[in-house]
Design a protein that fits this description.
disordered C terminus; 7 helices; mainly alpha; elongated; Arc Repressor Mutant, subunit A; 163 residues
Length: 163
């Protein structure tokens, strides 16, 4: 078998190509908006949970971020005007974290970038082939990880997804 015929080699090369593209976009995002990848994850989390109270502990647990690191990150986001903290309606001991209008605009721009990446990846590939590929990739992930459950895609990735 030729080196290029190995699926691991192909996946590694694909990963390198995507990483280069994503890093370029990340640098542009940092220059344009002054936000890091971690900031983007937090904004995405707040978007996914915009209809409920979000406390710092929720973000720590769900995104696996240490309390001290998250506190610093949230302080920076608040200073940039991207989040606000307010007293919980249900428990005054806690402060709720929510995004601002500016954060929503930035998040929408980021989501457009994600959609661009997805469209680029899928260019020229039939929808049925993408469905098969998705199932095969899920199985490969299960094979390698030992997980027997379907790989969960974040809600924000599935909104327009029929796969």
């Amino acid at each position: 078998m030729e080196r290029g015929d190995y699926i691991g080699y192909q996946m590694r090369y694909f990963n390198q190509c995507m990483k280069q593209r994503i890093n370029q976009k990340r640098r542009e995002r940092e220059e344009n908006y002054g936000i890091s990848m971690m900031d983007g994850w937090i904004l995405r989390y707040l978007d996914e949970h915009s209809d409920e109270e979000v406390w710092q502990k929720n973000i720590e647990t769900d995104l696996h971020i240490k309390k001290s690191a998250l506190t610093q990150q949230l302080n920076e986001l608040e200073a940039k005007g991207l989040i606000r903290r307010s007293i919980s309606e249900h428990d005054s001991r806690y402060k709720c974290i929510s995004r601002t209008g500016r954060a929503l605009e930035i998040f929408q721009d980021i989501m457009e970038e994600v959609e661009e990446h997805e469209q680029l990846i899928k260019t020229g590939i039939d929808e049925r082939d993408m469905e098969v590929f998705s199932r095969v990739l899920d199985q490969m992930i299960k094979n390698v990880s030992g997980e027997q459950k379907k790989v969960r895609r974040p809600d924000w990735m599935c909104k327009n997804d029929r796969i």
